[in-house]
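From the shared-data thread, chain only:
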Amino acid sequence: MAPLVWLITGTSSGIGLALAQAVLARGDHVIATARDITSPTLLPLQTHGAHLLAFDVTLPQSTITSLLATALTLSPSKGIDILVNNAGYLEIGVLEDLNDSQWRAQFETNVFGAVRLAKAILPSMRERGSGTVVWVGSVAGWKGEEGGGAYCGSKFAVAGIAESFREEVVHLAMTAYNGRQPCSPLKAAKHMIEVITSTGMAKGRDMPERLVLGSDALEVVREKCERTLALLKEWEEVGRSTDF
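Structure, as tokens:
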């Protein structure tokens, strides 16, 4: 099988950096993006063969589309097999303390940036008849936390968009995958690759709609689901009473 081509955003730290390193280690090609590609953390990626591309996901759609065209020229196959929408940041503050610009900036990067990338890459994936778009989420997309309204809101939005996008592209033989941010970036990167490529622990299994990584995240999601089921049971009579 020919090496895959990955375009990964937000690779200067965290899961983005760990994922890029793991992808290179398995012999695939990586186009690594970051706002500042002069960051010292990116030098090892370049040393191991990654192409670095300065990329600000908050730029207008037309600029993002042009940058993606540049990324395609860096690909040995002139195509991208896997887009990983990872770029994002955490804005902390209670609702009344954050101003409009802080709320908008959080969604501009975490939500609209990912949407722009998906829109830009979809035509080339459709033309090739295959492709995978990965939306890196967070446990914050399952449960709100005090002081995390802006960030949690952005991750809830990403989860909904990713789920809808998955339904929109299934007929194109394309896949969309929504992953949760993990405890250990290195371990998470390994398992993300296995899920995306149907290897290792994911061999012979369908790609999940959402993948929760990390024991802490599993407990949060399980508790949220159990609370939701309990709420449905408690208020089912009231809910059903509104039917025609």
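The chain has a mean pLDDT of 94.
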